[in-house]
Amino acid sequence: MSRTIGQVILWIGLVGLNGALLWSRDPHLAQTTIEGVHTETRLIVLPGGRIAVEILRPRQTAQDLPRGPRPALLLIHGGSWRGGSAALGTRGVESTAERLAQAGIVVVAVDYTLARPGAPSWPMVMRDLRSTLRWIRREARTLDVDPDRIGVLGFGAGGHLAALLGTMPDELDQGVSSKPGVVVDFYGPTDLAGLERDRNLEHDPIAVFLGAGDRHVASPLEHVSADDPPHLILHGTADLWTPIEQSQRLAARLEGLGVRVRLIEVQGARHGFEAGVEFPRHLDLLPEILAFLKSVWNAP
Questions:
Q1: Full domain range(s) for residue 80
Q2: Which among 54, 76, 103, 165 is least surrounded, fewest beta carbons within 10 Å?
Q3: Strand ranges inside the chain, DSSP E
Q4: Would you say residue 286 lies in a domain?
Q5: What value does the mean pLDDT of the chain take?
């Protein structure tokens, strides 16, 4: 009996080893197709190590005339800097990522470094996101992406990180920029010190995310400058987790410096909605998002 159990354990170990080797060798882990969209999971090599991305591309059809390289969005999932994933952020009924891809935009969702108690993810998370943005620019030809039309979109904690990418100084690597050309921010915190103070939680995710890191340095509100890219900000008026005043202050500061910004206040909406708002009433924000992106990118 003990010998049989040992053989089973050995077999399981070998299967696991083979799976790990397959994962490490094959950069294209999975490919699926949904209506109008081709989805690919890929491992990419960045300065901080390997990272998983979900790439959603519009499917070419017989009726789809040649359009040249497409615009792209780096999608940053939410989850209070501690949870979520690129895959979860792109799946589901009427997901914003899938709808953007169906509209003709290449979406790249990234699995950035997550924080856990005793192991803050700041500032490594910014390294991950900046490196991924540069990777998209370097791989623009392969991805069929226009390197001059690359933006960033995030939800919650992802919205905060998207706004940071848009407001913090650029970090060039061999001449390749890590600055997005446009920011779409869904209800992201903008003043972490103020939010942490106002919520007054015993275990605020901000503390897990930053540890002893400077709250002001990690706040988009502290980095706004006149050369920041256009911002589209969407926030619910009934958001109790991240009050709408956080976005109102960022919008006012951007506008005060002459940066193009639009704040959409979604009446009665709470934290956590996507482009298709379900509560307190059905509202589709995708046309507003696409109109803003097209105006920034000068697209017809």
A1: 27-297
A2: 103
A3: 28-34, 37-46, 49-58, 70-76, 106-110, 145-155, 183-186, 231-236, 261-266, 276-277, 283-284
A4: yes
A5: 88
- The residues facing 19 across adjacent strands are none
Mean pLDDT of 262-270: 98
Nearest by Cα to 124 from 16, 75, 51, 192 = 51
| pLDDT of res. 47 | 85
pTM: 0.87
CA 161/CA 239 separation, integer angstroms: 18
pLDDT band at 285 (very low <50, low <70, confident <90, very high): very high
Token duo for residue 122: 């700041």
What tokens does 185 get? 């921010």
Please check whether residue 185 lies inside any domain of the structure.
yes
CATH number reported for the structural domain that contains residue 123 in this entry: 3.40.50.1820
Beta pairing, strands 106-110 & 145-155: unpaired
261: left (phi > 0), else alpha (psi -120 to 50), else beta?
beta
Render 125-191 in DSSP notation, one character per residue: HHHHHHHHHHHHHHTHHHHTEEEEEEEEEEETHHHHHHHHHHHSPP--BTTB----S-EEEES--S-
Does position 89 have pLDDT exceeding 80, yes or no? no
214 backbone dihedrals φ, ψ, rounded to 5°? -70, 120
Q: How many CA atoms lie within 13 A of 125 on its CB side?
A: 28
The predicted pLDDT at position 93 comes to 52
**Rounded distance, CA 128 to CA 130, Å?**
6
- Please tell me the distance from the alpha carbon of residue 109 to that of residue 107, in angstroms, as a whole number: 6
